[in-house]
Design brief:
The protein is mainly beta. The chain has three helices and 28 strands.
Length: 388
C-alpha cells in the first residue's frame, strides 16, 4: 500500500478498479438464503425505492463485493382470528447494485439517486450512479476519517461525512472531522458542475479527543452528542455550529426524527426502540422504550441469541421503523457459534388520542424474520442503510 502526496495511505485496488468503471455482473456463488442465481438489471427499481424512503440491505460478499438489495414493506394478517395486519420487510431476490470489496468501503449512504461509499483511515470516496449503473471515484476527502458515518442532507444529493472519533487538534494539523460532499460549479471559467469535498468547522468544544455517541439529521442540521461535552448541531449548508446544551441525547447510534410523531426515535443503550422528546426542558427526555423490540426470551426459546452490537434502525415513514440485528442461530454442544443470521423486525409507533407527548403505543410489531443463514467463518455482517 502506497501513500498519496499528503502522506495518506492509498489503496491500490481503488486505482486499478477504475480503469474500467462499468460493473460487470457475475454469478453469486454463496449459499445465503436471499441470494439469487444471477443479477437482475442493476438499476431496476432503485430510484423507486429511494422515492419510497425504503432501506437497502447491504451484504458483503467475498466474491461479488458489497451487494445492495431492495426491500419490500409487506403488510400481512397476523392470525386467522385477528384483522390487524402486521409488518415485515422482505429483500428482493437479486441485488440491484454492487461495489467491489477491494475499494475498501465500509459505510454507505443513499442520496440524490446515488450510492456513496467511504472507508476508514482513507481519503477515498466512491459514488455509484443508479441511472447509468456505473461506479466511479468520488472526490477525495481533505482528511481521512477513523470511524466515518455518511448522512444524507436534504434533496440535492449532499452527503455529510462525519468522523465519530473527534481528535484533539494541535497547531498546524490540517485535519477535519466533518466534510460535505456536494455538487458545486467548476471554478476557472470552464463551466459545469462537479462533486467536491468541502471541509467544515470542528464542533465548539475543547478538552481532547471524544467519541460521538448519538447523532441524527434534523432539517438541514446534524445533531451530535459527545460525552462530557454536550450536544451540538451543525448547519451543513452554512457550515456553522450551535450548542444545543450541556446534556447528551439518551440514545445510542443514529436516530431519526419522525415528523408525524414530533419525536426522535432511536435505540437506547440496551438496543431497545425508544422515543425521545428533544424539546423537553431542561434536557431531552426519554418518553418510552419498548422491551418487545429486543425479544431475547423469544429467541432464547428458539435456541437463538440476538446480538445487540451493530443494530441497524431504518425509518420507513408513517411511524414505521425496521430494526436489523445479527443473531447466533446454531452452536456446537460446547457452545461455540457455528451459524449466524441477519434478522429484521418492523414496527409502527403511533400516538394515542388525547395522550399528549407521553401517549404513545407500539401499534404493530412484526414477527422477527431471518433472511439468510451463513456458516460462522463466512458470515458477512449484512446491515441496513437509510435513504435520505
Amino acid at each position: 500500500m502506497g501513500k498519496d502526496a499528503s502522506g495518506t495511505p492509498t489503496n491500490p485496488a481503488y486505482s486499478s478498479f477504475f480503469a474500467d468503471t462499468r460493473l460487470v455482473p457475475r454469478k453469486n456463488e454463496l449459499e445465503a438464503g436471499f441470494y439469487g442465481s444471477r443479477f437482475a438489471s442493476l438499476a431496476m427499481g432503485v430510484v423507486e425505492v429511494m422515492a419510497a424512503n425504503r432501506p437497502f440491505f447491504v451484504v458483503p460478499d467475498v466474491k461479488e463485493g458489497q451487494l445492495f438489495y431492495n426491500v419490500d414493506l409487506i403488510e400481512s394478517v397476523h392470525s386467522a382470528d385477528s384483522d390487524e395486519p402486521t409488518l415485515e420487510i422482505r429483500p428482493y431476490p437479486h441485488p440491484v447494485a454492487r461495489i467491489p470489496l477491494g475499494l475498501g468501503c465500509r459505510v454507505f449512504a443513499v442520496s440524490g439517486g446515488s450510492i456513496w461509499g467511504a472507508a476508514g483511515y482513507s481519503r477515498d470516496t466512491v459514488v455509484h450512479d443508479v441511472a447509468t449503473e456505473t461506479t466511479a471515484p468520488g472526490p477525495q476527502l481533505h482528511y481521512p476519517k477513523v470511524t466515518p458515518s455518511l448522512l444524507p442532507v436534504g434533496d440535492d444529493g449532499t452527503v455529510l461525512v462525519m468522523d465519530r472519533t473527534i481528535r484533539s487538534p494541535w497547531p498546524g494539523d490540517p485535519f477535519c472531522s466533518f466534510e460535505a460532499l456536494r455538487s458545486l460549479p467548476v471554478t476557472g471559467g470552464g463551466g459545469g458542475w462537479r462533486w467536491q469535498a468541502v471541509p467544515l468547522p470542528e464542533p465548539p468544544f475543547r478538552g481532547g479527543s471524544a467519541h460521538v455517541t448519538a447523532y441524527l439529521m434534523l432539517g438541514g442540521r446534524a445533531w451530535v452528542s459527545v460525552p462530557d461535552r454536550g450536544t451540538f448541531s451543525l448547519d451543513v449548508d452554512r457550515g456553522t455550529w450551535r450548542t444545543e446544551g450541556s446534556w447528551q441525547l439518551p440514545l445510542r447510534g443514529r436516530a431519526h426524527f419522525a415528523p408525524e410523531l414530533g419525536l426522535v426515535i432511536g435505540l437506547n443503550s440496551g438496543g431497545k426502540l425508544s422515543a425521545c422528546d428533544i424539546e423537553a426542558w431542561p434536557k431531552p427526555m426519554l418518553l418510552r422504550q419498548w422491551d418487545t423490540t429486543f425479544p431475547t426470551a423469544e429467541c432464547r426459546a428458539a435456541g437463538h441469541q440476538l446480538l445487540w452490537q451493530d443494530t441497524g434502525l431504518a425509518y420507513l415513514g408513517e411511524g414505521r421503523f425496521c430494526l436489523s440485528r445479527h443473531a447466533v442461530v446454531e452452536r456446537t454442544a460446547e457452545g461455540r457459534a457455528t451459524r449466524y443470521a441477519i434478522s429484521s423486525m418492523t414496527v409502527q409507533v403511533r400516538r394515542l388520542p388525547g395522550g399528549g407527548l407521553g401517549g404513545l403505543e407500539l401499534a404493530r410489531r412484526g414477527k422477527l424474520r431471518y433472511h439468510a443463514v451463513w456458516p460462522y467463518k463466512e458470515y458477512p455482517f449484512p446491515y441496513l442503510i437509510q435513504p435520505s
